Structure to design on (500 residues):
């Protein structure tokens, strides 16, 4: 059996009882650790789970996971995913491979940043498409996020910010805003300006998330301390949403 | 302290270790039990949690929760929410009241149907706005869901189906499709027809979810067994999405 287990957003105790039971009976346990970041160490997880964890880097997950799936034909294997189990393309790809190989799969869900943003007071039903903002590279400066914000129109846009946990590199909210403002300067469609209301978030899903709301020109000056970070561009606000986000005004 | 605790989608073991620790130290524990439905009984929850649970019906949650929030000034009180903690307007409203009353709030997240749909193979990033389909009533036959599907255009639409758990009444996928087809008959914009590809889901988040993919005319004939149900109208499909949803073809 291949268990794909969401372990939540922050620390060892975010795993569900069902998830922990599954981990305890698995012979091999992998942690996908390049698409997100917990606030604890792998050792902390190992201690609580009572199991050795093998780190699964991008190359293992995206190129060589087939061998591990094959092992799951005769052994119980767990793949731990930060957040929910099947929120990213990579994880769905593994689920697909397992199904193709007719390996039994058990998916154990958990919290995801996609719903943890509910703590901002913005209604999840009022979000449009989620987008991500990648680190700019030579010849790779996509304008996708800007276009998604535009298309979402009256709906809120959640922007997930790029990260390289192995290099301890996390796009900050300031960097994300600067990227959007650069695209704005190029396209000039007034989708995001110095005056646009935005909400910056850090460590959603933890007991001490940092959530700050204000104009772009003010939010860029804020310190959001620890990653992971995300940025929300609210669309049209319902009055209850307005009332809740007031608590986060800088 | 007021703990608002997501308890996941299916059974007692879906709670996180952190959630269970919080429940165990609370003096009063309420379960909001009218916006969703677990596969287990309240007794099953009580047994695992080792605590008495007070059922919180709509009137208590929406009209009289202020008194309970007041008690949380001096006592540890838990409000248990099926799914994630702050995914519905009602729960955000309670969070807002607690903040207004300066009652400390601890939000413990969990799995939500909004990300559990990842198991269908559809990318969460390719979903547009989520909508819901209410039971038709005299003078209340909203066309919102139809309009949302239309506006979502190339993006996938998750339709949550109405339910009255206390009356054991759950909108089926067949009923939801019939409601959409009625709106189609009136508006005639070819948003949903007999030939439209849809995905019906039951018991997402459980170990045995039922997921079936096919044309509207064929899906209406399927038995999805047990609630809760939801209906997805896929937008434009990426090839990986196409490959995964094939597994669910009827």
């Amino acid at each position: 059996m291949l268990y794909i287990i969401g372990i939540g957003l922050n620390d060892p105790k975010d795993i569900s009882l069902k998830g922990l039971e599954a981990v305890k009976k698995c012979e091999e346990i992998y942690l996908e650790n390049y698409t997100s970041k917990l606030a604890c160490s792998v050792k902390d997880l190992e201690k609580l789970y009572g199991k050795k964890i093998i780190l699964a880097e991008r190359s293992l997950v995206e190129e060589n996971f087939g061998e591990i799936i094959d092992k799951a034909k005769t052994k119980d294997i767990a793949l731990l995913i930060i957040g929910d189990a099947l929120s990213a393309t990579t994880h769905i790809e593994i689920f697909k491979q397992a199904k193709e190989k007719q390996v039994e799969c058990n998916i154990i869900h958990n919290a995801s940043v996609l719903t943890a943003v509910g703590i901002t007071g913005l209604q999840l039903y009022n979000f449009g498409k989620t987008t991500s903002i990648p680190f700019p590279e030579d010849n790779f400066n996509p304008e996708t996020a800007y276009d998604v914000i535009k298309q979402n129109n009256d709906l809120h846009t959640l922007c997930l910010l790029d990260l390289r946990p192995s290099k301890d590199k996390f796009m900050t909210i300031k960097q994300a805003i600067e990227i959007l403002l650069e695209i704005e300067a190029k396209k000039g469609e007034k989708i995001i300006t110095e005056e646009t209301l935005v909400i910056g978030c850090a460590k959603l899903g933890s007991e001490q998330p940092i959530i700050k709301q204000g104009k772009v020109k003010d939010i860029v000056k804020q310190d959001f301390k620890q990653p992971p970070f995300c940025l929300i561009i609210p669309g049209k606000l319902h009055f209850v949403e307005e009332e809740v986000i007031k608590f986060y005004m800088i």
In short: The mean pLDDT of chain A is 96. Chain A touches chain B through 54 residues (CB under 8 Å). The first strand of chain A starts at residue 2 and ends at 6.
